[in-house]
């Protein structure tokens, strides 16, 4: 059985920078971002610590395809996704994902 995937968007405390990623383990991957496992990564450089969007897919291939689609879009398209899912732009890691 193939493992599912998840597309997610991170931002910084001022919501000025967005990062779109894909993972098969959301909780673990966000923990890595928060603890700057990769010190020279984009998310570490811009202090992207707030999970503001995520969506699960049945397969990792579907998630990767969606990540590519989201990344190809402009900031306005990403903001629309976030606003529909999380209008207050709350940090969903601390509120939800961390406690799974």
From TrEMBL:
PROSITE patterns: GIY_YIG (PS50164). The keyword Cytoplasm does not apply. Keywords: Endonuclease, Hydrolase, Nuclease. It holds the Pfam family GIY-YIG. InterPro entries: GIY-YIG_endonuc, GIY-YIG_endonuc_sf, UPF0213_domain. Gene3D superfamilies: GIY-YIG endonuclease. GO terms for molecular function: endonuclease activity. Residues 3-80 form the GIY-YIG domain. Belongs to the UPF0213 family. This is Putative endonuclease. It comes from Sphingobacterium yanglingense.
């Amino acid at each position: 059985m193939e493992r599912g995937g998840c597309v997610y968007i991170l931002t910084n405390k001022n919501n000025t920078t967005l990062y779109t990623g894909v993972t098969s383990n959301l909780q673990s991957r966000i923990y890595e971002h928060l603890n700057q496992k990769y010190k020279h990564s984009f998310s570490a450089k811009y202090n992207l610590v707030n999970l503001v969007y995520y969506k699960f897919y049945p397969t990792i291939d579907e998630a990767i395809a969606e990540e590519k689609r989201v990344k190809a879009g402009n900031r306005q398209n990403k903001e629309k996704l976030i606003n529909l899912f999380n209008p207050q732009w709350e940090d969903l890691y601390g509120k939800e994902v961390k406690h799974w």
